[in-house]
Specification:
alpha/beta
């Protein structure tokens, strides 16, 4: 059974319509009855298979039945830095995992905006959306707030990448393990509003994993320990209503995936504290782990290094009076990880632009542990083995 990333429809490969490559990705698009007759596991060069409901095209590997497409739901409330984390995560995976995991490769696949007649490379879409973050080491600019999908349907367009891993039996086969993952940005308001979450976030329940991003300044007990920040959005951060978010998540699984009441959800959930550079200034020993160097994942998943951080974060949250967060998640999800990351590595600075208006500049990016949740998820599904390295960090 396949799931459409755009409309969440479920269908079999046999039900996927064979359409010309220039068929608009919209429900009302007409498909000629004269489409070529061809076997289900073949695809003409000028045709593609599309969702029978919204006409969104499948990837080549998905359309030919060779691979499944797994969404990774990166979500959270307003102001948690999703629009910084997603492009930095993709960039770091390309740059670092190719170097540290022998045989690993990551390639952009075609994606398409709803209503568009032609596909675009995911790398090209990433550059269009987030290019200002990487324009150069000193002049990168903060990404604007993500607009709601009900006002701009293009925000539903996922970034799709094929991950390739070395085979476990290199002497006997040249074929390697492959999987395709999709990343999608969304406005934080759509996650916190029950109606919008029901309409636009059903893909969360169909995902291979959920990365729930949390701004530490919205966690009661933790934010009071942080020095005052004057950066945009930090001084007026609202408390994070974690219990309500978990309740909505559980309810969404029960309603759309028929999860029995009281049954723990099988989809892995990672709780990710963003803007971890702020936590370096926690008084005493509390901020020590956030001042350590970035973690390597040499030849696989550095389980020891990740477990050390999770234990540290657990103690910190319990000490801040947020132990109920952990109890609530563990009661509802079979697999749960706890992480802290910083996409930028530091706070943006305000500078005057050419028009005299104040702009937030990023400067030199210094990502910190952004790969941990992703590699943890890859390890969970058996794509990456645990490495034998200790909790050694890179320079």
């Amino acid at each position: 059974m396949l799931n459409c990333l755009i409309c969440s429809s479920e269908f079999t490969l046999a039900e996927a319509l064979l359409a010309p490559v220039n068929t608009p990705a919209e429900p009302q698009a007409k498909i000629a009855a004269s489409a070529p007759s061809i076997g289900i596991h073949r695809l003409p060069w000028d045709h593609n298979r599309v969702c029978p409901n919204c006409k969104w095209p499948l990837t080549y590997a998905q359309a030919t039945g060779q691979l499944s497409l797994h969404p990774i739901a990166i979500t959270g409330g307003p102001g948690v830095s999703k629009s910084h984390y997603i492009p930095v995560l993709v960039d770091q995976a390309k740059r670092r995992l190719r170097q540290t995991i022998p045989g690993f490769d990551m390639r952009a696949q075609e994606t398409r905006e709803p209503g568009a007649a032609y596909s675009v490379c995911s790398d090209q879409l990433l550059a269009t959306r987030y290019g200002r973050l990487f324009c150069d080491d000193q002049a990168g600019m903060v990404i604007a707030k993500t607009p709601r999908a009900d006002g701009d349907s293009r925000q539903r367009t996922p970034l799709i990448y094929r991950f390739t891993f070395p085979s476990a039996w290199k002497l006997f086969t040249t074929r390697r393990k492959c999987v395709e993952f999709a990343f999608r940005d969304c406005a934080g308001e759509e996650f916190t509003e029950p109606g919008a979450m029901q309409e636009f976030h059903r893909y969360i329940t169909q995902s291979a994993g959920i990365l729930l991003l949390i701004d530490p300044t919205t966690v009661p007990g933790l934010r009071e320990r942080l020095p005052r920040f004057t950066g945009a959005g930090r001084g007026a951060a609202r408390p994070f209503e974690f219990d309500q978010i978990v309740s909505r998540l559980v309810g969404l699984f029960e309603r759309t995936q028929n999860v029995a009441v009281g049954t723990r959800i099988r989809t892995p959930l990672a709780i990710v504290l963003t803007k971890a550079d702020m936590l370096r200034e926690l008084p005493g020993d509390a901020g020590a782990i956030f001042r350590q160097r970035d973690l390597l994942h040499c030849a696989g998943f550095n389980r020891q290094g990740v477990q050390t951080q999770q234990e540290w974060l657990r103690r910190l949250l319990v000490d801040c009076g947020q132990g109920s967060i952990l109890s609530s998640v563990e009661a509802n999800f079979q697999t749960f990880g706890l992480f802290a990351v910083s996409a930028l590595g530091h706070s943006p600075t305000l500078k005057l632009g050419a028009d005299g208006q104040a702009e937030q500049q990023v400067g030199h990016l210094q990502p910190w542990r952004v790969l941990d949740p992703l590699v943890w998820l890859l390890h969970h599904y058996g794509y990456v083995k645990a490495s034998k390295e200790t909790a050694v960090c890179s320079s």
